[in-house]
Write a structure and sequence with these properties.
about 100 residues, 2 domains, three-stranded antiparallel beta sheet, 4 helices, 3 strands, elongated
């Protein structure tokens, strides 16, 4: 029985030296980032900008972010989100 356990340890040890370096090399590479979506609905666009849906609706109504309507859906292009996020916005979104 002791000989069998020693044999199992030797096999595991030899496999560990062969398999683990390959596995860790695979784990070191990060998968490619997913491509951004072309259009976002209001909820997802607000999440991308880290603002509330109500604040986004205000920006859409003021024309600060351009959008498209498809049927009853309001869709915001990814490029508009990037443009708005890179812009300088000294004024608050809405007055209280």
């Amino acid at each position: 029985m002791a000989g069998l356990l020693l044999f199992e340890r030797e096999i595991r040890g030899s496999l560990r030296h062969r398999v683990l370096p390959e596995m860790t090399a695979q784990n070191r590479t990060t998968p490619p980032a997913p491509a951004p979506r072309l259009l976002y609905d209001r909820k997802e666009a607000a999440r991308q900008l880290s603002i509330s849906v109500r604040a986004l609706a205000y920006l859409l109504s003021r024309g600060e972010i351009h959008f498209r309507r498809v049927g009853s859906k309001t869709l915001i292009p990814h490029s508009e989100l990037v443009r708005f996020a890179k812009g300088h916005h000294p004024k608050p979104i809405a007055r209280r």
